[in-house]
Amino acid sequence: MVLFQFVMPDSAISVKNLTKKFKHSLVAVDDISFDVENGSVFAFLGPNGAGKTTTIKMLTTLLHPTSGTIRINGMDPVKQSHAVRQSFGIVFQDPSLDDELTAYENMFFHAGLYGVPRKESPGKIEDLMKFVELWDRKDSLVKTFSGGMKRRLEIARGLLHTPAILFLDEPTTGLDPQTRNYIWTYIKKLNEERGLTVFFTTHYMEEAERAAQRVAIIDHGKIVINDTPANIISSSGTASLEDAFIKLTGRAIREQEGTGMDQMRTMRQAWRGGRR
């Protein structure tokens, strides 16, 4: 079964001179540019309040930019929002499954929301649930699943409509190290075997250092650096990506982007069809 069917340009994501201004002259994102190569794994990192969440909201059609351009799979998220949403999958930081439904029912209802043809849904659901090793639990209520099992199911669900890009918003937050490694095994397998472009955020710097081919660090609304993990470590004269991140962004503790995260959670609820 072919899971990814979009004809892709060289850049799965292309951002040029992107700016977002809010009231009171707050510039949350300040003239940033970057590209994510088709079929690559890209980490987008930043302290709380750096502009990371605002950027992701613009990439995923939730927020319109003040100026600049975005292309997702060659399309404009402002003018072609529906087509853009169909071309990517997203896994939110907060749980977004219905605990009172079975794993299969969660997948089936999501397929309906995204317009997957009914005759194709059973085969796709089986294929993806086998891929994340949950097919034997298809009839189990999600509330009986561990955190890692839920995350794997969310990844499978995010792929049902055959997206070309998978956005992962801190996919391993709250998971133990063994489960985190297990989740990344599936993510890397998707990238390597199926050519899926992966765009992820994380506060675990070792995950970005190990998994990403390129890393962009944003702070105070600007891209501080965009390079391979090895080059970032080398150019900063540090021993690890975490050390480089702290050197580039400072040691001060930042406040969480509360408003942005609230809107991301609103987006998650909306994409679940309003279920709460």
Helicity level, as a percent range? 25-40%
Give the DSSP E fraction (strand runs of 2 or more residues).
15-25%
Class per helix and strand makeup? alpha/beta
Q: Could you name the CATH topology of the largest domain?
A: Rossmann fold
Strand-and-helix sequence, N→C? EEEHEHEHHHEHEHEEHHH
Strand tally = 9
Radius of gyration: 18 Å
Main beta-sheet strand count, sense and barrel state: 6 strands, mixed
Number of domains in the coordinates?
2
Number of helices: 10
Low-confidence stretches: 1-6, 258-266
- Terminus-to-terminus distance: 33 Å
Strand order of the largest sheet: 5-6-7-3-8-9
Q: What CATH architecture label of the largest domain applies?
A: 3-Layer(aba) Sandwich
Kindly report the average pLDDT value: 88
- The CATH homologous superfamily of the largest domain is named P-loop containing nucleotide triphosphate hydrolases
